[in-house]
Amino acid sequence: MVRFDGKVALITGASSGIGAALGREFAARGATVALAARRTDRLRTVADAIVAGGGTAVPFTCDVTRDGDLERTVAAVVGEFGHLDVAVANAGFGVVGSLADLAIDDYRRQFETNVFGLLRTTFAVLPALKGSRGVLVLVGSVTGYLAAPAASPYAMSKFAVRAFAESVRPELAKEGVAVVLITPGFVDSEIRRVDNRGRYHASAPEPIPAWLRMPTERAARRIVRAVAGRRAEKIVTVHAGATVFFARHFPRLLRRLLRRGRPYRTAPRSD
To answer: What is the spatial distance between Cα 86 and Cα 228, in angstroms, rounded to a whole number?
Structure first.
């Protein structure tokens, strides 16, 4: 098992899903984990479970859409632990729906979290990562390659994340910082039960069948290994890998299939 003893990892969106699983996985491999998210109670539950299992985890209430939150969080992490070695920009959600049902505010809300939240994270952590020659992890999506019908805000945001990763990777490599782009497909998480305003609906049905979803813990193990290897990109699921392959080599065929297929998903009601 690859170890992270003596390392400090900061994870945004760490109160559930991939973020929480990454917190557990990094801690199990010896890292001190700083867990950042808006939902304080759930964040503390994740941190308490890690500590009960023998790991080291500290929760930080942080909203990636608010200027200053990330800077305060990073300052607290470095102040308490002395350094930062890994930063995972994971916070995000999906705004979906047909163009006729969306407004500019829906796109603005999507980009505020998925793109500008990721940028706020990047700018806040870079000084510390340059000092440690650490790793910046950007969580994208297979929709960064495949723009499915009825998911244009989410797809646009994840295309932007991929473009950002590709652009800044050579810039930051000169300063010793590795940029790892994570491209998941369907993973067990709450994202498909979150409405277009970012609110979680526990009773909303899961539209993706269980056989197509990767367990969150397995995804986290693959991501952590990619971080340890400072890989440029990690495509996490088999179907994501197949989608990326077709998007790169057979784009016309993929577009034809999309025209005949079902929309990406329907968002839970926002009202």
So the answer is: 10
Contact criterion met (CB below 8 Å) for 77 and 84:
yes
Catalytic residue among 145, 154, 200, 264: 154
Kindly report, residue by residue over 218-269, the tens digit of the pLDDT.
999 999 999 999 999 999 999 899 999 999 999 888 888 877 655 545 556 5
b or e along 46-62 (b: 16 or more beta carbons within 10 Å of the residue's beta carbon)? bbeebeeeebbbbbbbb
Extract the tokens encoding 116. 């500008």
Domains of the chain: 8-260 (3.40.50.720)
Laid out side by side, the sheet with 178-183 consists of 56-61, 32-37, 8-12, 86-89, 135-139, 178-183, 233-235
- Token pair 């049905």: residue: 205
> CA 236, CA 234: separation in Å to the nearest integer?
6
Residue pair 176/193 in contact by the 8 Å Cβ criterion: no
Q: 0.85 exceeded by the pTM? A: yes
Q: Which amino acid is at 117?
A: G
Over residues 157-195, the pLDDT tens digits come to 999 999 999 999 999 999 999 999 999 998 887 676 676
Q: Is 154 a catalytic residue?
A: yes
- 180: exposed, middle or buried (Cβ count in 10 Å: 0-12, 13-18, 19+): buried
